[in-house]
Automatic annotation (TrEMBL):
This protein's name: FAM50A/XAP5 C-terminal domain-containing protein
Superkingdom assignment: Eukaryota
FAM50A/XAP5 C-terminal domain boundaries: 1-123
Single biological process term from Gene Ontology: chromatin organization
One cellular-component annotation, GO: nucleus
Length: 133
């Protein structure tokens, strides 16, 4: 669980401590050597979860975090061209792993999150699919 003012960096430190009991190599890694990737965006460690949620930050394929009430999408025709407001689980990787694999999918699609940039259009399989709402 995270508190309102927790940064991505403090979250990564909690995750590192939690994983250190299962993976010995995590005991030797600092939180600065970890990356949090959400919706193909590398989230900087100084940003807080609260900032991302309150600003309704968007990723390449939709909102980074979505806590609204949803209609049941199984009740109708499913159109793949319509943007879904569901978010995917985040990934935590070592920076060293990313540096070695950034030319290989999926890391080749990742970029550093910029709050000023508009991630309005997203692609699937390299093709243009939909535009922002």
């Amino acid at each position: 669980q995270c508190k309102k003012g927790d940064t991505i960096g403090s979250f990564l430190e909690l995750v590192r401590k939690d994983l250190a009991s299962e993976f010995r190599e995590m005991g030797n890694v600092s939180a600065d050597a970890l990356l949090y990737v959400k919706e193909d965006l590398i989230i900087p460690q100084d940003i807080t979860f609260y900032d991302l949620i309150s600003s309704k930050a968007r990723g390449k394929s939709g909102p980074l975090f979505q806590f609204d009430v949803h209609d049941d999408i199984r009740l109708g025709v499913v159109d793949v061209r319509v943007e879904k407001d569901e978010s995917h689980p985040g990934k935590i990787v070592e920076r060293r792993w990313y540096d070695r694999n950034k030319h290989i999918f999926p890391a080749s699609r990742w970029e550093v999150f910029d709050p000023a940039k508009v991630y309005g259009r997203y692609t699937i399989h390299g093709g243009e699919v939909s535009s922002a709402k």
